[in-house]
Amino acid sequence: MQLTVWTYEGPPHVGALRIATAMQGVHYVLHAPQGDTYADLLFTMIERRPTRPPVSYTTFAARDLGGNTAEAFKRTARDAVARYAPQALLVGASCTGELIQDDPGGLARALGLSIPVIPLELSAYQRKENWGAAETFYQLVRTLVEPVLPSPATPRPPRAPGVAPSCNILGPAALGFRHRDDLVEVRRLLDALGIRVNVVAPEGATPADLTRLPDADFNVVLYPEIASTAAAWLTRRAGQPATTTIPIGIGATREFVEEVARLAGVDPAPVLARLAGLPPRRSAGAAPLAPAHARLPWYSRSVDSTYLTGKRVFIFGDATHAIAAARMASEEFGFTVVGLGTYAREFARDVRAAAARYGLEALITDDYLEVEAKIAELHPELVLGTQMERHTAKRLGVPCAVISAPMHVQDFPARYAPQMGIEGANVIFDTWVHPLMMGLEEHLLTLFREDFEFHEAPSHLGAAARAPGAEAERAAESFAPSAATTASAPPDAAPSLPPSAAAAVSLTPPVAPAPASSDTLSWSSEAELELKKIPFFVRGKARRNTERYAREHGLALITVEDLYDAKAHFSR
Amino acid sequence: MSDLPGVIGVNLSTSDTASAPPPAPATPSRCVEIHHERGQHQVFCGLTGIIWLHRKIQDAFFLVVGSRTCAHLMQSAAGVMIFAEPRFGTAIIEDRDLAGLADAHRELDRVVTRLLERRPDIRMLFLVGSCPSEVIKLDLARAAERLSATFSPRVRVVDYTGSGLETSFTQGEDACLAALVPSLPATTDTTPSLLVVGTLADVVEDQFRRQFAALGIARVDFFPPRRSTELPAVGPATRFLLAQPFLRDTAQALERRGATHLPAPFPLGAEGTRGWLQAAADAFAVSPATFTAATAAAQDRAERALAHYRPQLAGKRVFLFPDSQLEPVLARFLARELGMTLVEVGTPFLHRAHLAADLALLEALPTTTRLTEGQDVDAQLDRCRAARPDLVVCGLGLANPLEAEGLTTKWSIELVFSPIHGFDQAGDLAELFARPLLRRQRLAL
Ligand code: SF4
Ligand code: SF4
Question: Compositionally biased, Low complexity: which spans (chain A) (predicted)?
Fold first, then answer.
């Protein structure tokens, strides 16, 4: 048994739902008790999809357990097919459905439906959401594509002369982090290269579309977490190569363009020009740089960005986004990556390899408390993570940007905000820089710390961000996450029952508590005042370092001098 | 228990299949017409009650013994609103726990021990059963006994089920409170005392305390209490008022302890609150003069607040999907105090005895009220679309899709998470229904 409060991934049938919801003409019959219908709100509330996900739950109850559950399944499947007329039916069980062993696949087959039935066995007590999505997508592709393929030995015919090269885009799904916009951006790149997009799946695809997958020359895999199993099968069985580069960041987008150009046999040069490092200069003969030119390279090189140099950043998320973020942070922002990890054990090896490039050991865990402890220990200046890390960072008073699922309603923005391709890099530049102090502002803040008008958060974040300053400061100083209160909830959504919420006590043991300072060490009042002048987000670290220094040097009373001696001692 | 026989002209009909059309009543009569429906339910399971219970009982921890799905449900239902460090968690059953129950019990002990070491502030631990724990027959009662022995006197361990096989949404609170009743201290005191049963927002609880004091009812307790160490005593002189309509098992358990239920309408709206307080006043022989003196001002405030919203809501047609079992009570409030027209009133479960007074008030309306117990969500959606009501009260899974179809909705979960009981919340309750309509009016989109 694993004790948890918040989880990075839902159960595997939620992954299956993400595939079914992304597609058209698919319906999912899920053998599950009534409470499991909560999953609908993930799509209708968090992602704001305007339609119900295409799923019928059997909602069997205790009174059915004697032997009526199989009947309930058959009735639900029959009714769903009659009502929704899908082209293909997914059938499976949630964790409880799995335990009662009704064999949804067999029951559905016995109904003699005229559409393909794809049974899903998702090992609810072992697997999780992303695996469930990948397995579902693979089963769909395999079941629908196999019948239309020539025998395995048949070699792939070469593309006819005069026919444009084409590819499929695999991976975009429901509840994906910016999948909607990434898709647009990647299509732009492919368009510009003259590569036709044959099928996008699962998002927007019908079962009939899936049967056309083999028509393309190769597959673009945008999200390996979801599409790599299916893509590997298509490579084996249909002879379609698959891309391995994820176009997040300037460098990776460049490599992606080169990779697809190679697979398609086209010239990457015109698109690579848009990724160049300098702003476009007006010159008579230059072609217009439509639709967009990468601004990140210039913005990052412009002098205002000097202040970004060496900012210590902690990164955690799914493997794809975490690895890409680490590369961008290091190569395109000039940050120092101090921590890198993932909750996706299936991809642990890739993340370990990436971490090694920064001289780090990857943090592989699905326990958010472990991640929190690591952040508290490393005390980074910026956290790039999931919804979970956003909350952790808020508690610790560290700036944060979300880079990966799981995420919340505000991570499905109304505006166009891709992560991939040219515009994706531009968006990421803004997103990561925004929570940080601006260049000059940081200097002024350091110089005139006592100016009463200086609040202790970037002024461009507005009053709301400054309000919890005192709180954040306390949390930052003590590293005790128990400082969490309803202050972290958006004001209009605060539930009204809990005036007591403030009394919520942490499940977390105090993480890396400030070494018991009170018993052995004390601070002179001048030193205490001086400490207050240090920006709140590094104050906790300064306090700890100074106390460590004092202890190592056998000091009992910390003076202003000691504070600066410690600073010199630990300065990087 | 009073059934108010003869007051309700009940038309009973059953539609068991998704495709059966809603049976039309032969002759429109002034009555409450009850339909039963079976099909897909679109309601949370009882685990969800933990979201408010863990805030109410401040020294209790709720440990769900369940699957990743249960943890994800809690996260999705609660995470929309809060992300503090909550006093709940899930012990996720994994493959190896399914291998043998002995091992599962050992694992549970390990998880609980670790949890209680980390949380020295916890005085009461609820082991909350789920569908998986029930299907594998993990005996949580036994586990609770064993762990209670280990951790007493510091921590009391109690078990109940929030499984979706047994409970829907608010029934989780019923199961929790019913499980607590045996722990209530016994009293043989013969002076009558009042017990208010069902979680109320702290602010509402305080208002009611003042109101009962003004009525001269000196000994009033609330259940659940804010701290597990302050469990109210119960005995033959205990009279209890239900604050919520979903407490069937809790009421029975209290009756078994000798307490007496005071039948009353539920305290939503001015009329309901008045009737509810009146039931207490009658049981404690409060004079009419005292009653009027104690309640007139608040009732007047409530009515003024309601008058403000009536023009916006009167005549509007409302359709309530089943969610919390509060629906018949809300329907009574919306129809009688705000003049709304009831298209359909769904409820996951209808406790006729506890709702007798509210049903009688619905019965007194000049129109027929269609009450649907149980659910077939697809059929119900068909009826809702066909009726095109002005306002649909429904769960989070249905709200946006219905909005996208041009209907105006109110999320029902807010009705459970907001202080809505009592005179001083009557206006707030009306506002919750008026807001979506007002928003529709404002937006030029
Ligand atoms: S319905 Fe059952 S399995 Fe689903 S979340 Fe509720 S208790 Fe868990
Ligand atoms: S603060 Fe609220 S809305 Fe924001 S991520 Fe957390 S739970 Fe979601």
Answer: 477-491
